[in-house]
Structure formats: C-alpha cells, structure tokens
Amino acid sequence: MRNKLWIFLALFLVIPVLLGTVSCAKKTVTKEEPAPVVAPAPAPPPPPPVEDKAAKAFDMAKSEFIEENVYFAFDKSNLDDMAQATLKNKAEFLKTYPDVYTTIEGHCDERGTAEYNLALGERRAESAKSFLVDMGVEAYRISTVSYGEERPTCTEQTEDCWAKNRRDNFIIN
C-alpha cells in the first residue's frame, strides 16, 4: 500500500511538472517600423480623343440625308428627275447603313383643303418610299406620315414659298 502511495504522490508531482514544460512557447512581439509614406505618382494625362473615321463619315452622311428634301410640283406626287437623283443618294445611304430606319414626312402648301392636303402629303411620302424600295431598300425600314399643310417651312403667300412647302422630309429613327 505504501508503494501505491508513493506512485500516486510521484504522479501527482510529476504530471504538473511535465505539463508546465510542454506548454506553448511565448510569442515575442517585435515592433515593426511603419513603411515610409510615399506620395503617389501623378496620373498621366488622358490620351487625346481618337477620332473614329467611320463615326465621322456616318455623321456627315446622316446630316446630308436629313437636310436634303425631295420637292414636288403643285398638286403632284410624281417624282421628277431632280427628286429621283436625291432619292438615289438616299437609297445609297440606307443601303450603306442597314441599321438605319427612316420616316418620310409628306408636306403640302396651304392651297387646298386640309383633308385633300393630308391625302396629297401621304401620296408624296408613299411615292418616295416606293422609289427607295425599288432601289433595293427594305420596305420595313421606311415609314411614312403626312402632315399636309400643317408644318410649313415658309409662310409667305408667294409661289417660291409654296414650292418650299411641297416636299418630303426624311427623319432618321
């Protein structure tokens, strides 16, 4: 029994000593020096804008397309040689840029009734559309509308002024 007592006593004293020697190692804290502050380098200037030649060409062609009107004789919706030449240019533009859709606006001078001028404006717009379709432009890309005498570009009571109002305008959608 004495031997057992010595064994318990030895274990009682040896185990805490062993546990103390195998404990975790101490961490040593080292103080790091802060990194020197360096001012950021100035950003390089942005590159000059690059002119996109294709976009510039499109903008020029678009302006010409919109500004060039087709004109008609008094009380007529048929296309004369000058109107056909203008429409050929417009057809080339539309074939060059297949994503462009257009609306043809038919206009008249103030002579005649409002109803008659609306119908005449529609015939004029449809005449231009038919010509463009015959030139190879897809019909679904062209819509028409008639404003009759409602949107004049000139308001004088002269033949020159009335001639300016008998027109088809072209809008890019």
Notes on the structure:
By secondary structure, this protein is an alpha+beta fold. It has a domain at 53-78 and 96-108 and 115-149 and 164-173: OmpA-like domain (60s Ribosomal Protein L30, Chain: A, 2-Layer Sandwich), CATH 3.30.1330. The protein contains 5 helices and 4 strands, in the order ααβαβαβαβ. It has helices at residues 2-21, 53-67, 81-96, 114-134, 159-165, and strands spanning 70-71, 102-107, 142-148, 167-172. The chain has a 4-stranded mixed β-sheet with strand order 1-4-2-3. Helix 4 links the parallel strand 2 and strand 3 (142-148). Helix 3 (81-96) packs across helix 4. The longest helix is centred in the last third of the chain and has 21 residues, at 114-134. The termini are far apart.
Number of strands: 4
- CATH first level of one domain: Alpha Beta
User: What percentage of residues falls in helices of 4 or more residues?
Assistant: 40-55%
Give a quick account of the main beta sheet: strands, pairing sense, barrel closure. 4 strands, mixed
Q: SSE string, helix = H, strand = E?
A: HHEHEHEHE
Uncertain regions spanning at least 5 consecutive residues: none
Name the CATH superfamily classification of one domain. Answer: OmpA-like domain
Rg computed from alpha carbons, rounded to a whole number of angstroms? 44 Å
Q: What name does the CATH topology of one domain carry?
A: 60s Ribosomal Protein L30, Chain: A
CATH architecture of one domain: 2-Layer Sandwich
Task: Kindly report how far apart the N and C termini lie.
Answer: 109 Å
Mean pLDDT score: 86
Lateral strand order in the biggest sheet: 1-4-2-3
Q: What percent of residues are in strands?
A: 5-15%
* Number of separate helices: 5
Shape: rod-shaped
By secondary-structure content and strand pairing, the structural class works out as alpha+beta
